[in-house]
């Protein structure tokens, strides 16, 4: 398409790969420092990040399924989530503000009241953000900071 720019494309690809490697190393650092800690999430948007960071997502499956399907959260699943955050059974709550609703709002409020850090993780670039790697880096740093409290 633009063979005259081949060297530029290669340099940009190498720089991008280096930045991805830096992000991966930061996630590995979370796993080394905080691996095994338990978290809950209002949506599975950070599933791969949590798995790679070595933390255990203890969110009731029924809760996540209801949020994903935009249906009512079963009472038992809602109560279990409240117990997790109110009883400080988790080191952090990961929230997707793009899927906020009444059920997730109650969980976030309970977490904050109990001193459990709330980490925002979004599915898409937030408005005004145009750098994918900075966005991902911010989410990684937020998780690391929350787990370090």
Tally of structural domains:
1
Low-pLDDT segments: none
Predict the CATH topology. Rossmann fold
CATH architecture: 3-Layer(aba) Sandwich
Number of strands: 4
Q: Give a quick account of the main beta sheet: strands, pairing sense, barrel closure.
A: 4 strands, parallel
Query: What's the helix count?
Result: 6
Choose one word for the global shape: elongated
CATH superfamily: Nitrogenase molybdenum iron protein domain
* Overall CATH class: Alpha Beta
**Largest sheet: spatial strand order:** 2-1-3-4
Strand residues, percent? 5-15%
How much helical structure, as a percent, in the residues? 55-70%
H/E series: HEHEHHEHEH
Give your account of this protein's structure.
By secondary structure, the chain is of the alpha/beta class. The chain has one domain: Rossmann fold (3-Layer(aba) Sandwich). 56% of the residues lie in helices and 9% in strands. It contains six helices and four strands. It has a four-stranded parallel sheet with strand order 2-1-3-4, sandwiched between helices. Helix 1 packs parallel to helix 6 and helix 4 runs parallel beside helix 5. It is elongated and about 60 Å long. It starts with 5 loop residues before the first helix and ends with a helix.
């Amino acid at each position: 398409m633009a063979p005259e720019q081949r060297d530029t494309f290669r340099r940009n690809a190498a720089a991008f790969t280096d930045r991805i490697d830096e992000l991966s190393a930061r996630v590995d650092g979370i796993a080394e420092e905080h691996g095994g800690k338990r978290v809950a999430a209002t949506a599975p948007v950070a599933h791969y990040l949590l798995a790679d960071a070595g933390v255990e997502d203890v969110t009731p499956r029924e809760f996540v399924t209801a949020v994903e399907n935009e249906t009512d959260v079963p009472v038992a699943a809602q109560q279990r989530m409240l117990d997790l955050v109110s009883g400080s059974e988790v080191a952090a709550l990961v929230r997707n503000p793009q899927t906020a609703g009444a059920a997730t709002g109650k969980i976030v409020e309970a977490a904050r009241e109990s001193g459990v850090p709330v980490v925002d993780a979004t599915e898409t670039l937030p408005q005004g953000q145009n750098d994918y790697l900075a966005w991902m880096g911010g989410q990684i740093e937020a998780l690391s900071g929350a787990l370090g409290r």
